[in-house]
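Table 4 source record.
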Amino acid sequence: MTMKKVLVVGGGPAGMMAAGIAAKKGHEVHLFEKNPRLGKKLGITGKGRCNLTNHSDIEDFMDHIHGNSKFLYSAFYQWTPKNVVDFFASYGVETKVERGNRVFPVSDRAYDVIQALLFFLTQSGVHIHCNMEVKDLLVEDKQVKGIVFQNNRYEYGDAIILATGGLSYPGTGSTGQGHSMAQKVGHSINPCFPSLVPLVVKEKWVSELQGLSLKNVGIVVKTQKGKKIYEDFGEMLFTHYGVSGPIILSASRHLGDYEKEPIDLYIDLKPSLDFQTLDKRVVRDLEKFRMKDFSNSLYELLPKTLVPIIVQLSGINPDKKAHLVTKEERKTLVQLLKSLKVTIIGNRGFKEAIVTAGGIQVQEIFPQTMESKHIKGLYFAGEILDVDGYTGGYNLQVAFSTGYVAGSHIS
């Protein structure tokens, strides 16, 4: 193998992995990052805990990749979730598996993950250049020649790995500039929209539940004409503007085609109980607290902060004694518990989106190598590609796998 001068643009997880692997293969590698330090976005993933990957087999991974999953088959088999866990263990980062097979550092610190990657880069001999913003690619006769910086200085190279991320969390440097650079040299960009993003709802009462986390609830998302868009089960969170949490973030991935219309979200507060079983439970509670006001009869059934909202939405007189609640009123209450409705009117945008949906069309990239089909010596890795997954470590695995593949196949 001939040693090449490799220029990696972007110091996130994909760029760092690609740079280190390429250097291990014997290439002269230069990593350029616009921020003062590498891994800025990585440091805030998983609320600062860094959900590295998911302890699942490849087929399960495919089920959790929403955008262009088949494109990633080769990458996932070349650099598996086990490879990721073993890699970090070799640099002193032990991991643990939590709910949903999510893999975290035992320390719960994203900082440790970043330090491991930095040590990997230094050990591999990568030349790191921070505060260096790239604005263009140099291409001649369908072959890369180098990059151009914002100050118009040039850096020549034999291969370029573009790993500049998408548009999510722009404060970390993800501005979509890599898409522009790729487009200028002939690549097509699929429209981008925020994914895994908190949702904004119309109902004002939601703000009164700010901070309330609900576990083991079901959701169904529908158009206002009744078309089902998404269904899930798990954990969600109420915020001052709407709803968030794992199942809400995953649901948001499916709303890109419905940005201009309100969407109905139905929350099943008791998904383990069918209507009849829940009705019997409510009957027992109303009888147990028969001499209490209705407003004080639901505290064994629901979280404390949710009770006043359910009482209000039920339309039942809060001062009515529990044993006086009619059968019709009780049925209305049970229906509310099984299908609490809120209206989605938007999302929190790229500034709070975990990942970007859309990006460089994968049909223009060789999946086995991540090299461009249009430009010799141009490779892509990470969120810049039109590939994205649900929450749970899937997107970081995409970054690590595609970075590994790009770095391994410089030729």
